[in-house]
Amino acid sequence: MKNDYLPWSKKQHEAHPKTYIYYRVSSKPLKSFFGKARLEEITTGQVEKFKLNRAEQVSPATTNRDLAAPRAMLNYAIRHEYITRNLVTESSPAEGPG
Fold first, then answer.
1. What pLDDT sits at residue 94?
2. Domain 5-90 sits in which CATH superfamily?
3. How do the domains of the chain map onto residue ranges?
4. Do residues 53 and 66 touch, judged by C-beta distance below 8 A?
5. Terminus of the chain with fewer CB atoms < 10 Å: N or C?
6. The whole model's pTM is what?
Protein backbone atom coordinates (compact mmCIF):
# COMPACT_ATOMS: atom_id res chain seq x y z
CA MET A 1 0.00 0.00 0.00
CA LYS A 2 2.63 2.50 1.11
CA ASN A 3 5.26 1.72 -1.51
CA ASP A 4 3.09 0.88 -4.50
CA TYR A 5 -0.57 1.86 -4.38
CA LEU A 6 -0.42 5.24 -2.64
CA PRO A 7 2.34 6.67 -4.89
CA TRP A 8 0.38 5.47 -7.93
CA SER A 9 -2.85 6.94 -6.53
CA LYS A 10 -1.19 10.31 -5.92
CA LYS A 11 -0.07 10.45 -9.55
CA GLN A 12 -3.35 9.03 -10.88
CA HIS A 13 -5.46 11.58 -9.00
CA GLU A 14 -3.37 14.71 -9.60
CA ALA A 15 -6.41 16.43 -11.10
CA HIS A 16 -8.45 15.42 -8.02
CA PRO A 17 -6.06 15.61 -5.05
CA LYS A 18 -8.89 15.17 -2.52
CA THR A 19 -9.42 11.65 -3.89
CA TYR A 20 -5.82 10.77 -3.14
CA ILE A 21 -6.05 12.33 0.32
CA TYR A 22 -9.23 10.35 0.99
CA TYR A 23 -7.51 7.08 -0.01
CA ARG A 24 -4.45 7.94 2.07
CA VAL A 25 -6.57 8.73 5.13
CA SER A 26 -8.73 5.63 4.61
CA SER A 27 -5.62 3.48 4.43
CA LYS A 28 -4.88 4.17 8.11
CA PRO A 29 -7.73 2.07 9.57
CA LEU A 30 -6.91 -0.64 7.04
CA LYS A 31 -3.26 -0.74 8.15
CA SER A 32 -4.34 -0.67 11.77
CA PHE A 33 -6.78 -3.57 11.35
CA PHE A 34 -4.90 -5.81 8.92
CA GLY A 35 -1.37 -4.98 10.05
CA LYS A 36 1.25 -6.32 7.69
CA ALA A 37 -0.94 -9.07 6.21
CA ARG A 38 -0.29 -9.68 2.54
CA LEU A 39 -3.25 -9.10 0.23
CA GLU A 40 -3.50 -12.77 -0.69
CA GLU A 41 -3.70 -13.68 3.01
CA ILE A 42 -6.78 -11.53 3.68
CA THR A 43 -10.01 -13.52 3.68
CA THR A 44 -13.58 -12.45 3.00
CA GLY A 45 -14.30 -13.14 6.68
CA GLN A 46 -11.58 -10.72 7.73
CA VAL A 47 -13.07 -8.07 5.45
CA GLU A 48 -16.42 -8.63 7.18
CA LYS A 49 -14.73 -8.25 10.58
CA PHE A 50 -13.11 -5.02 9.39
CA LYS A 51 -16.54 -3.71 8.35
CA LEU A 52 -18.05 -4.63 11.71
CA ASN A 53 -15.14 -3.03 13.52
CA ARG A 54 -15.47 0.19 11.50
CA ALA A 55 -19.26 0.21 11.96
CA GLU A 56 -18.69 0.36 15.73
CA GLN A 57 -16.55 3.47 15.27
CA VAL A 58 -18.35 5.38 12.52
CA SER A 59 -21.74 5.54 10.80
CA PRO A 60 -22.81 2.86 8.27
CA ALA A 61 -22.48 5.45 5.48
CA THR A 62 -18.90 6.24 6.54
CA THR A 63 -18.14 2.53 6.78
CA ASN A 64 -19.32 2.06 3.20
CA ARG A 65 -17.30 5.08 2.04
CA ASP A 66 -14.27 3.69 3.86
CA LEU A 67 -14.65 0.49 1.86
CA ALA A 68 -14.16 2.46 -1.37
CA ALA A 69 -10.46 2.80 -0.56
CA PRO A 70 -9.70 -0.90 -0.10
CA ARG A 71 -11.94 -1.68 -3.07
CA ALA A 72 -9.81 0.61 -5.24
CA MET A 73 -6.59 -0.77 -3.76
CA LEU A 74 -7.64 -4.36 -4.39
CA ASN A 75 -8.70 -3.57 -7.96
CA TYR A 76 -5.28 -2.00 -8.47
CA ALA A 77 -3.66 -5.16 -7.10
CA ILE A 78 -5.72 -7.30 -9.49
CA ARG A 79 -4.70 -5.18 -12.49
CA HIS A 80 -1.06 -5.62 -11.48
CA GLU A 81 -1.58 -9.36 -10.86
CA TYR A 82 -0.68 -9.23 -7.16
CA ILE A 83 -3.97 -11.00 -6.40
CA THR A 84 -6.71 -12.66 -8.46
CA ARG A 85 -9.93 -11.49 -6.75
CA ASN A 86 -11.34 -8.51 -4.86
CA LEU A 87 -12.53 -9.59 -1.41
CA VAL A 88 -14.31 -6.30 -0.76
CA THR A 89 -16.64 -6.62 -3.73
CA GLU A 90 -17.31 -10.26 -2.82
CA SER A 91 -18.68 -9.30 0.59
CA SER A 92 -21.92 -7.50 1.29
CA PRO A 93 -21.99 -3.76 2.08
CA ALA A 94 -22.18 -2.65 5.69
CA GLU A 95 -25.73 -2.08 6.78
CA GLY A 96 -27.20 -0.25 9.68
CA PRO A 97 -30.00 -1.57 11.86
CA GLY A 98 -33.24 -1.99 10.17
1. 46
2. Tyrosine recombinase, N-terminal domain (1.10.150.130)
3. 5-90
4. no
5. C
6. 0.70
